[in-house]
Amino acid sequence: MVKNRRYQLGLYEKAIPNDQSIIEKLKLAKESGFDYLELSIDETDEKLRRIDMPQSEREALLDAMIHLDMRINSICLSGHRKYPLGHKDTEMQAKSLEIMLKAIKLASDLGVRVIQLAGYDVYYEQGDAKTKEIFIQNLKEAAQMASYYGVLLGFETMETSFMDTVEKSMEYVRLVDNPYLGVYPDIGNLKNASLLYHGDVNTDLLTGKGHIVAAHLKETIPGHYREIPFGTGHTEFKHNIELLKDMGVRLFVGEFWYTGSHTWKEDLKEANTFLREKLDHVFYGQGDRM
Question: Is the CB of residue 107 less than 8 Å from the CB of residue 115?
Answer without folding.
Answer: yes
